[in-house]
Design goal:
5 strands; alpha/beta; five-stranded mixed beta sheet; 2 helices
């Protein structure tokens, strides 16, 4: 399960500061099932990226994601 799909990329929302392995299970399953190599996890304030066997998951604060969207 993922929360959004934008430009064929899965986006999962976890509005908290501490992200644990359990929080990325859904996005990893989606990436594996649809052979997608890049996904985004929106967080409260964490940013960065991690490499997983399915590809790369980018951590991005929700506010930053919203500011990047076209109006």
């Amino acid at each position: 399960e993922v929360d959004l799909i934008v430009d064929n990329k899965p986006i999962e929302i976890k509005y908290k500061s501490k992200i644990i392995d359990k929080d990325i299970i859904g996005i990893r399953e989606f990436m594996r099932k649809f052979s997608i190599k890049k996904g985004t996890l929106l967080t409260k304030d964490k940013h960065g990226k991690i490499k997983v066997p399915e590809g790369i998951i980018i951590f991005k604060p929700v506010y930053k994601f919203l500011l990047e969207q076209p109006s």
